[in-house]
Amino acid sequence: MQYLEVKKGRVEIIPMIDIMLFLLIFFIMITIHMIPDKGLPSNLPGSSTAQQLPKPKVVLNLYADGHVEMNGKTVSLSELTNALRAHDPAATQVTIAAEKTADIQALIKVMDACRQAGVTAIGMAAKGN
Hints:
There is one protein chain. This protein is of the alpha/beta class. It has a domain at 46-128: Nucleotidyltransferase, domain 5, CATH 3.30.420.270. The chain has three helices and seven strands. The chain has helices at 14-34, 77-86, 104-117, and strands at 46-47, 58-62, 68-70, 73-75, 93-98, 121-124, 127-128. The strands form two sheets. It has a five-stranded mixed beta sheet. Strands 1-7 form a two-stranded parallel ribbon. The longest helix has 21 residues, at 14-34. The protein is elongated, with a radius of gyration of 26 Å.
């Protein structure tokens, strides 16, 4: 006569590890998108027709004395052109945040440097009134 063996229930741990890893990756990806971009306070010109633009990929700060900052570093126009060429120029969006008192000729030079790099999507930052 054979006796029935009593089998103990087993907790399969491998699928649980897979689920925990998936949840960890999910929360990491969500957290990355929740981190706000940092910026510097600036004296932007106002506009009554300003619109919310998609998130720019490259933000350039143009100051009243004519110097340009990219990612917090002062760059010359040739360095700006080379840096923009390093990105995919056709897919790069540039937003220029110029001070109210910035020279228009300096703004045109920055825009020309962007166009020489092959960037076609150039926007201007302004405060909405």
